[in-house]
């Protein structure tokens, strides 16, 4: 494990009409300490700021230190945002999982693409997955003392030898004991199982899911949910990784296996804690389960039920679609070919609007070397390969999940501006259902003087 030394937290935003704004905080100031304690991360910051009386030590952009005293309501927010949630740097990953996406990228890209983290704080704050193999006793103590729950854990296998083989780390064998640690303290995890054919599938997958299901009991189940996800491979992965792509036949096998177990568990306890990612059904060419199947969407960020939820939200939003738009417009909506079939109802409804013609451009990623690709993995190079020389109408509707959060850059480092120039057409990144509809029928999306319109947040 490697950690960057603690440093003052850089302030990147001061919310208007906030306590911080009234006091005079400025972008570029650095927060050194709160009541004599230097926060390690956003978790510490929120915990320390909950008090009614605060003494802040602040370093301004000129290097001058200030002491600031604040009296406020308990839990009232100061109105500060920071460059990063982790003031002491990421906890790096010491596993060597063969399916790690970081290791399946080509060389020569921006440095941040190759940085592996295994940080429990990002798991608690944002739902990112960690393995628990990189935690020191100090970190375990902090999780317990601060009740950092739920955490999101990449389990993959509960059999010690199988999990060790997958993570290439002897500490990986401790997973069941670690889950018991959560159970004893009434803390929770959401588990993830990435299925790698020939390694942790079949009887091993059965064992893993049954082991995890045993922890789904009581008022505070240690395992709140389990997502079963197909391994994703790219053409850049190491040749010796021993991994096999998930075929439609394998996807159907896993769907049948997991659904049998789901039915069994529901008969016993009337509860389901095991969920199949949407990708299994897309790969298998099968219909998605009904929306009622997903209950309260406990693993929505892992692609479990995200398409059904997206379709429902569109149906609701489509009620406000106009009967007609003027002037007439023809647009191209880019998606991964994995959702081509599932999104046909959306396409059909949009094209019922008089004067609006939307064509779906659904394709796999040549860049990653995949036959079936989810939308978020499409790159600028994929757009150029599939769309260059084609009549794309007035412009392209681009789901913003293809872009780095808060940036205009694709995963292959090309920018929206570069791709737009090469295609000779305007590109409008759209965020979620509202962004898609606004891009289609809104005034000015494709006829304003600016060449780009940006909204950068995640969507299904």
Structure notes:
The chain is an alpha/beta fold and 460 residues long. The chain folds into 3 domains: 9-82, Pdz3 Domain, CATH 2.30.42; 101-304, TIM Barrel (Alpha-Beta Barrel), CATH 3.20.20; 311-441, no CATH class. The chain contains 14 helices and 14 strands. The protein has helices at 19-23, 42-48, 120-126, 137-145, 160-167, 175-184, 202-213, 248-269, 278-284, 306-317, 344-350, 380-387, 416-423, 432-441; strands spanning 9-14, 30-34, 53-59, 65-71, 80-82, 129-130, 151-154, 189-195, 223-230, 274-276, 324-336, 354-363, 395-399, 426-430. Helix 7 (202-213) links the parallel strand 8 and strand 9 (223-230). The radius of gyration is 24 Å and the shape is globular.
